[in-house]
Amino acid sequence: MSVEKVAVVVAGGSGMGAAAAKRLAADGFKVAILSSSGKGEALAKELDGLGVTGSNQSNDDLQRLADLTLERYGRIDVLVNSGGHGPRAPILEISDEQWHTGMDVYLLNVIRPVRIVAPQMVKQKAGAIINISTAWVVEPSPMFPTSAVFRAGLAAYTKIFANTYAADNVRMNNVLPGWIDSLPATEERRDSVPMQRYGTSEEVAATIAFLASEGAGYITGQNIRVDGGIIRAI
């Protein structure tokens, strides 16, 4: 008898998070979705899943999501961490408060749910965690200073986590989107992409689905670019 697989998507009410939830549901996962807007609950209802309205900046909300998921389904196989947008300004004009906000949005948005969900995966001796990051981790852009700084920290966190829990068959990888259609489109940005187009949320979701699958069972600690070739570093 096959075991029903369960995916938790944090910040999954819209954009790439919602696309990931839809793709995982289409691949046969039961999905549990957290969003602050209520859209996650509506989407979960569509997908015959579990929806919770709450914030990925609240440990209590994240714990409630995990508890309800385990109560209903008994396991968590996949955790997808999405997020919002942090402060943007010239680097010397970013205040301490804005840097702290950036850390909440781009780094602690992963650390908090992982701290809650990973012990269950270790207990199961199986699990995949996929974090939506940014293509500009290796070559940071001054357009997105708080994102670049804290997602570089996320890359380091991912390597440490992967090294620590690989023997427990718990994997962590980051997906690095470039210009994606969930963002406002501009001709200048489109022209900067070698493929000469924006990527789609569905293409990001397909990469997430692969990393969640058994076919990616030997992949951990990696940063996978989905950016149309805009960053071509090794």
UniProtKB/TrEMBL annotation:
Family matches, as InterPro entries: NAD(P)-bd_dom_sf, SDR, SDR_fam
Family matches, as Pfam families: adh_short_C2 (PF13561)
Source superkingdom: Bacteria
Family: Belongs to the short-chain dehydrogenases/reductases (SDR) family.
Protein name, per record: SDR family oxidoreductase
Lineage: Bacteria, Pseudomonadati, Pseudomonadota, Alphaproteobacteria, Hyphomicrobiales
